[in-house]
Amino acid sequence: MPHPFLTAPKPLDLDFVRSHFPALDQGWTFFDNAGGSQILRPVVERITKFLYDSNVQLGASYEVSQVASDRVAQGTAAIAQLIHAPDPDTVVLGPSTSALFRMLAYCWGQTLQPGDEIIVTNSDHEANITPWMELQQQGVIVKIWQVDTASLELRLADLTALLTSRTRLVAVTHTSNVLGTINPIRAIADCVHAHGALICVDGVAYAPHRQVDVQALDVDFYAFSLYKVYGPHLAMLYGKREHLLTLPSYNHFFIEPTAIPYKFQPGGTSYELSYSLTAIPDYFQALAQHHEPTVAAQPPSAQIKQAFDLIQRHEQALSDRLLTFLRSKPKVRVIGCPEADADQRVPTISFVVEGMSSDMLPPRIDPHQIGIRYGHFYALRLIEDLGLMSQNGVVRVSMVHYNTLEECDRLIALLDTLI
User: Fold this and answer.
1) List of residues 6+ apart from 148 with CB closer than 8 A
2) 282 burial type by CB count under 10 A (0-12 exposed, 13-18 middle, 19+ buried)
3) Which helix (H) or strand (E) holds 353?
4) DSSP label at 402?
5) Could you give the CA distance from residue 201 to residue 128 in angstroms, rounded to a whole number?
6) In this predicted structure, what is the pLDDT of residue 1?
7) Does residue 110 sit in the same domain as residue 201?
8) CA proximity to 17, closest of 349, 322, 313
9) Average of pLDDT values for 288-294?
10) pLDDT score at 3
11) Alpha-carbon distance 279 to 82, whole Å?
């Protein structure tokens, strides 16, 4: 009998995984997942169930309305569970991460004074830059935390040099949607808090690949898009309770200041999409239990962690396969960490080819039913600062756990003839 510590970890059962995603049966290979993942079958089923069984206004006394109210609440609670939030009331749902950050900046900006400082990065998606930059109109000073041009990383020492007694907020991405680099959010949060400021994190490019634990990260605000985490077109914003309670309302004047999260959701959120969110943590728990049935006795957070451990190992293999090929091509430059180390990056891989505009490559891949993409991916400031706009940005291959090594090999075979 093998020693338990020498037993190899179980590989991800891709047949089980892919059976949950009907779109994967149509013959396409989806390598544009950072723009939006495929949706889980149970998510769609719960959208339908809500609309067929409980499509009424919330908060009335009659039974169907009570069912609808409970289902919407279940959706918020499911996302709170997914991110290990202390309370469902600390989760605000909205149409997109961009919209939620704009709402947050509008509300929080009302608490600032001229001369207060905000720090943003040049590697974030624009969703976590523009709303803060616009506060300059009221006298707020915005500083830019620049990516190190050699390592393409955000250095903590550079942030420390920008922090002052007037710093109120640092806005940073957990993972760049171009570089694929994972930033050390807990270390950044500790540094920011030591200077008396708050941290606001864009987790859009991180959440599909790793477990998010907002309490362990000690973040003040954290947002990501649920349609990139195998769900519907909604997004979530977590905020520490003390911040949400003291922020000005974004809703009607008669909504109580203590009514969180509703005071940030004018008109409420989509009922059927909210209910469908219950299927997302269910999927991760089912994934863990399928690979190790005894995990069912553990708390949901432990099951979700085990699922993401499986995902991380598989995704590292995908990254290694593609990056090994790209490094073998002398005309190719990987934009970001060139190694597949899962502690440093996710399988969102960008590259440029010497002498080739990036817009030339994806159309040559399209006829083979493989979806990749080129451009700046709303990280325009980063692409400009890296001098890549003249090549029409980068080519990006963004993989997730339902992708296979065989799919990766098909792409590599095509790229091998083109670059």
Assistant:
1) 154, 155, 158
2) middle
3) strand 348-353
4) T
5) 8
6) 46
7) yes
8) 313
9) 97
10) 47
11) 11
Could you read off the pLDDT of 19-36 as tens digits, one per residue?
999 999 999 999 999 999
pLDDT, tens digit, 9 for 90 and up, residues 33-81: 999 999 999 999 999 999 999 999 999 999 999 999 999 999 999 999 9
Please name the residue ranges forming H helices in 257-379: 271-276, 279-291, 300-327, 362-365
Number of domains in the chain: 2
Number of Cβ within 10 Å of residue 71's Cβ equals: 21
* Residues with Cβ within 8 Å of residue 176, at least 6 apart in sequence: 123, 124, 183, 205, 336, 348, 379, 382
Structural domain boundaries, residue 259: 45-280
3-state secondary structure of 384: helix
* Model pTM above 0.85: yes
196 and 80 assigned to the same domain: yes
What confidence score (pLDDT) does residue 248 get?
97
Q: Are residues 165 and 250 in the same domain?
A: yes
Q: N- to C-terminal Cα distance for the chain?
A: 49
Is 291 within the bounds of a domain? Answer: no
Whether 293 maps to a domain, the answer reads no
Task: Please report, for residues 159, 162, 183, 363, the alpha-carbon distance to residue 148 in angstroms, rounded to integers and kept in the order given.
Answer: 11, 14, 13, 32
Strands 235-239 and 221-225: antiparallel
Closest by alpha carbon to 153, among 116, 180, 127? 180
Please give the C-alpha separations between residue 214 and each of 127, 219, 391, in angstroms, as whole numbers.
Answer: 20, 6, 38
Of the candidates 375, 329, 339, which has an alpha carbon nearest to the alpha carbon of residue 153?
339
**Omega of the bond leading into 86 within 30 degrees of 0 (cis):** no
217 and 69 share a domain?
A: yes
**Do 32 and 19 form a contact (C-beta atoms < 8 A)?**
no
Report residue 18 as tokens: 């892919």
Would residue 21 count as lying in a domain?
yes
Radius of gyration of the chain (CA): 22
The C-alpha atoms of residue 48 and residue 254 are separated, in whole angstroms, by 33
Question: In terms of pLDDT, which residue wins out, 6 or 158?
Answer: 158
Given a contact cutoff of 8 angstroms between Cβ atoms, the answer to whether 210 and 229 are in contact is no
Beta sheet of 373-375, edge-to-edge order: 332-334, 348-353, 394-398, 373-375
Other beta carbons less than 10 A from residue 406's beta carbon: 9
Q: Read off the tokens for 132.
A: 């803060």
